[in-house]
From TrEMBL:
It comes from the Eukaryota. The keyword Nucleotide-binding does not apply. GO terms for cellular component: ESCRT III complex; multivesicular body. The keyword Coiled coil applies. It holds the Pfam family Snf7. Belongs to the SNF7 family. This is Snf7-domain-containing protein. Residues 178-213 are annotated as: Disordered. It is found in: Endosome membrane. Residues 64-91 form a coiled coil. Residues 203-213 have a biased composition (Basic and acidic residues). Keywords: Coiled coil, Endosome, Membrane, Protein transport, Transport.
Length: 213
């Protein structure tokens, strides 16, 4: 509660501007009344002329003229009030700008204290040396590679980029298709034909019982 009250506290400058605006509004209301009186005096003057009352018409016109003079004075006072109000408001804006510049200058000075000119120069020198060293490395590597090597390296880089963009699927999750299965035979395999030596041995085994008898 206390913080909100102090935040919304009206300063003397705010009060001065408020008073000027209140006075301005009063003058505007007074001008409206004067205009009503002027219109009324004009009507009275016309009516008196129609009735042949010259003196009454002349008196009404004099009153009208007096009210017009008052209206001119209030108009001038109103302009002065508005000019003064605008001047105060502009001065307050300038004050806020100056306070902002002052704070910014203080912050800038603090930054300069934390970062000396020697530190900046050293940082720039270190950066320049690092860039020069990197350029020397690039030139040394480039001088040892042929055009074909450069082309192969670029192709390898492109392949690595493609591999990085493709999602990695574990081997145990790769689906097995029918083309990966062994082919099932569709016919009965033929019996292997016996070789000549095998035929001779078979014939001897068949003749052996007859020879023993």
């Amino acid at each position: 509660m206390g913080g909100a009250h102090s935040k919304n506290k009206i300063t003397s400058q705010d009060q001065a501007i408020l008073d000027l605006k209140i006075q301005r509004d009063k003058l505007k209301r007074y001008q409206k009344k004067i205009n009503v009186v002027i219109e009324a005096e004009v009507k009275l003057a016309k009516k008196a002329v129609e009735q042949g009352h010259k003196k009454q018409a002349l008196l009404a016109l004099k009153k009208k003229r007096y009210q017009e003079q008052l209206l001119e004075k209030t108009e001038q006072e109103l302009m002065n009030l508005e000019d003064l109000t605008q001047s105060i408001e502009y001065a307050l804006v300038e004050k806020q700008v100056m306070e902002g510049l002052k704070k910014g200058n203080t912050v800038l000075q603090d930054i300069h204290k934390e970062m000396s000119l020697e530190d900046v120069e050293k940082l720039m020198d270190d950066t320049a040396e690092a860039i020069a060293y990197q350029e020397e490395i690039d030139q040394a590597i480039s001088g040892q590679l042929s055009a074909e090597d450069e082309e192969e390296i670029l192709k390898e880089l492109e392949q690595l980029q493609l591999d990085a963009e493709m999602p990695q699927v574990p081997a145990d999750q790769i689906p097995v298709t029918m083309t990966d299965m062994p082919q099932v035979p569709t016919h009965v395999p033929k019996e292997p034909q016996p070789q000549p030596q095998q035929q001779k041995a078979q014939k001897q085994r068949e003749e052996l019982p007859a020879m023993l008898a």
